[in-house]
Amino acid sequence: MVEEQLFDEEVAAPANPIESLLRMDRIPHIWCPGCGIGTTVNCFIRALQTSGLNLDKVAVVSGIGCTGRVAGYLDLDSFHTTHGRAIPFATGLKLANPELKVVVYSGDGDLTAIGGNHFIHAARRNVDMTVILVNNMIYGMTGGQVAPTTPLNATASTTPHGNFEQTFNLPFLAESCGAVYVARWTASHVRHLTKSIKEALGKKGFSFVEILAPCPTLFSRRNKLGDGLDQMEYYQEHAEIRHGADTKTVGMDFQS
Amino acid sequence: MSEPTPTKKARGSVVIMAERCKGCGFCVEFCPTDALDLSSQYNAKGYHPPVLARKDNCTGCDICGMVCPDFAIYGFIKKPTKGH
Lengths: 256, 84
Description:
Chain A is an alpha/beta fold.
């Protein structure tokens, strides 16, 4: 058969595969142009769709912040909780209804600063949930204050001369507290990230996926790192994939 | 049969919802076959949405759909038609 005949020119486009899991009346979302959170949501929805989970039994819990908005955009059972308390609410949800697959989807400031205690204790108790942490290295929604994940020497609105505090190595923190699955990807590694989220969803116990995402409006602009696209290119060029690495060795420095 | 035959026809295509686009350029940058360009047109918000500039390059891999933060583009594979 000649190749030209294989494909029909007038193929009707299928419907957008992810719109069935989005609350379309709330789209367009509030995230800035070049923000990586939307990309992570995209990957998360695709992971959910391919995971074979019963989507009526999936609950997404978010805290406060830019990433905390995710719960409001997903057309699943979702819960937008108080600041830092996404994991306690999710723990209660899981204990009250063990049939649910509970996913905590929140940001670095929410889960590791104000909710840091809950994070380590959920990992210690090995609560059966998946935590997806979008790390944009700063408090995005409140004006770019320094977060526990801000790299050393990076500028934030509360550290105008550079951050002088050591940053969290989150995969190491989660693993040392007892998480059964830890991973870190960037928003530019979409295929890997989708696969990783799918794996994490399939694990029983506390699974943790950290995603580095650009914050063009506050982190990149203040640190003169260009826009979201420049950040994504940087991730693509400089990120190193190490499967099964010792998490002690995966700490992050400021990129320039 | 193991080697893929070079095709002239596009194997896939994309659907672009231009009004949702915020012009970040992720899809253009991360398209593995370089099929997309930013359009010279503006949408209602004043951003340049992407346009499928090199149709024949598109494989419908949906990387643009995965990388788009605004859910404004997705790729699909054109199914082989039967009976031709």
